[in-house]
Specification:
It is a single chain. This protein is α/β, with parallel strands linked by helices. It folds into three domains: about 10-115, Beta-Lactamase (2-Layer Sandwich), CATH 3.30.450.20; about 115-135 and about 320-460, Helicase, Ruva Protein, domain 3 (Orthogonal Bundle); about 150-320, 3-Layer(aba) Sandwich (Rossmann fold). The protein has helices spanning about 10-20, 35-45, 55-60, 70-75, 115-135, 150-165, 180-190, 210-215, 235, 255-265, 290-295, 300-310, 325-340, 350-355, 360-375, 390-395, 405-425, 430-435, 440-450, 455-460; strands at about 20-25, 30-35, 65, 80-85, 90-100, 105-115, 140, 145, 170-175, 200, 215-220, 230, 240-245, 265-270, 275-280, 280-285, 310-315, 345, 380. A six-stranded antiparallel sheet has the order 2-1-6-5-4-3, with helices on both faces. The chain has a five-stranded parallel sheet with strand order 10-13-16-9-17. Strands 7-8 form a two-stranded antiparallel sheet. A hairpin with an 8-residue loop joins strand 14 and strand 15. Helix 13 (about 325-340) packs across helix 15, helix 14 packs across helix 17 and helix 18 packs across helix 19. The chain is elongated.
């Protein structure tokens, strides 16, 4: 049976000196008894000028400010704080009290590490978030906001804007959670029908036996259990406005025939009725399924497909427009803080995990996760341990080398995407600088860092 190895003092000192974090050992009065070699490097002072000095004296000399040791002595518990050394480095220090048998502090062990780079990255992120407020296109209607920083999403909104004032049927496609309903509202709110009703119908949520009466209404006594006075349908409720048929792929085949007649003839009959009722509505439909494939399988009428698909709008998934992830997080956090009366912020390391996640649930998943974090995090700062375990697991599976640099890499990737998007939109570095709120030399320098070439500027300088 193996016995535990006993280390000599010299061996223990060698181990502590090999640690990259600075380590202080102070007595009960806050006088430094010993410190490792990393201390001298971090605080830029000889070890001989630290040992034997009190925490108060070192604080007055500007070696660090404020002193975590003094805080531990005052509060008699573990204390973590951020302070500065004499040249302004940001240092994270944790002081841990060691108690004797009488419950009095006998020693204080302090570990410190340099977080200057992390603080710098956080400031860069805050600066980027500030620029986002100017750069992204906020289309607000009530509580709704469409984030369009990326070129693909910007293109979607430009197309929607052109289609808003015409009455052609539009088919919006895209994965679940990408925001198809927001695009449908955008079309309605920017068109000439904006002051008329906007009626949403989820074709997958209404039982098949009730679907016809819900859409088109019924006459009095049309069937057992119906209202004596009859009922108007959702198409009539949308008169003069827009009816949005979400999950159109779930519409039963028998009702697909009736919907086709409404589109072609602009009239319909209620259930149990004989009189045709004229209707003036714009029809917008949406699906997360491949309708062309359903047509080939005989599950969706081909003639209806062509009638609905006069003008298609495809909303790309979030993984294809990564520039939108950060502003979506920013927007969701702001909205949740406002609605719940909170003031939560996201720690940079936690944000790095969110930025490297693939978001298969798209914008809806972003909103749900941010709401979960705001509600379940007790402190004002959302930290990595607050992030759902499956996101942490995804982060751990990132390629070798992303580990400690995942945040800086995520910021760099975002910055590069932002510059590329601005270049496509504005063309010249001068216009880019104006839109981004920075100087032209800054834009040129950062483009050079990421290997982004501006053909227009290159040509003009020949």
């Amino acid at each position: 049976m193996k016995t535990e190895k006993e280390f000599t003092i010299d061996e223990l000192v060698a181990v502590l000196n090999s640690v990259k974090d600075a380590i202080f050992i102070d007595d009960r009065d806050g006088v430094t008894l010993w410190c490792n070699e990393a201390c001298a490097q971090l605080y830029e002072i000889e070890r001989g000028d630290i040992v034997g000095k009190s925490a108060g004296e070192l604080e007055r000399q500007g070696v660090f400010s404020p002193s975590v040791t003094i805080k531990v002595m005052e509060e008699k518990k573990e204390v973590t704080l951020i302070h500065e050394n004499r040249v302004g480095k940001q240092i994270l220090s944790t002081g841990i009290p060691v108690f004797d048998e009488n419950g009095e502090i006998s020693q204080i062990i302090t570990t410190s590490r340099d977080i200057t780079e992390l603080s710098h990255l956080q400031k860069e992120l805050e600066s980027a978030q500030s620029k986002l407020k100017k750069l992204h296109i906020p289309h607000k209607y009530g509580d709704e906001e469409i984030v369009a920083v990326s070129q693909p999403m910007y293109n979607v909104l430009q197309l929607a804007k052109r289609l808003a004032d015409v009455d052609s049927t539009v088919l919006i496609t895209g994965e679940s959670g990408v925001g198809k309903g927001l695009i449908a509202k955008y079309l309605h709110k920017n068109g000439h029908r904006k002051n008329k009703p906007f009626v949403t119908v989820n074709c997958g949520a209404i039982p098949e036996n009730l679907m016809e009466s819900e859409l088109f209404g019924y006459e009095r006594g049309a069937f057992t259990g119906s209202r004596a006075e009859g009922k108007i349908g959702l198409f009539q409720e949308a008169e003069g406005g827009t009816i949005f048929l979400d999950e159109i792929s779930e519409l039963p085949l028998n009702l697909q025939v009736k919907l086709l007649q409404v589109i072609q003839e602009r009239e319909f009959k209620r259930v149990g009725g004989v009189k045709s009722i004229p209707v003036d509505v714009r029809i917008i439909s949406a699906t997360n399924r491949e309708l062309r494939s359903l047509v080939e399988q005989g599950k969706f009428r081909e003639d209806l497909y062509y009638r609905l698909n006069v003008v298609p709008i495809n909303v790309p998934p979030l993984r294809e427009r990564k520039e939108d992830i950060l502003p979506l997080i920013h927007t969701s956090l702001y909205q949740l803080n406002t609605r719940l009366g909170e003031n939560k912020v996201i720690d940079p390391q936690a944000l790095a995990i969110l930025l490297t996640y693939s978001w298969p649930g798209n914008a809806r998943e972003v909103e749900n996760i941010i709401e979960r974090l705001v509600i379940t995090t007790r402190d004002s700062v959302v930290k990595p341990e607050n992030v759902p375990s499956y996101l942490l697991e995804h982060s751990r599976k990132q390629p070798e080398g992303k580990g400690d640099k995942s945040f800086s890499e995520a910021v760099a990737e975002f910055e590069k995407d932002l510059l590329e998007s601005a270049l496509k939109k504005h063309g010249s570095t001068r216009s880019m600088a104006k839109a981004l709120g920075v100087s032209q030399p800054t834009v040129v320098r950062k483009m050079g860092r990421y290997g982004i070439r501006n053909e227009r500027d290159t040509y003009s300088n020949r």
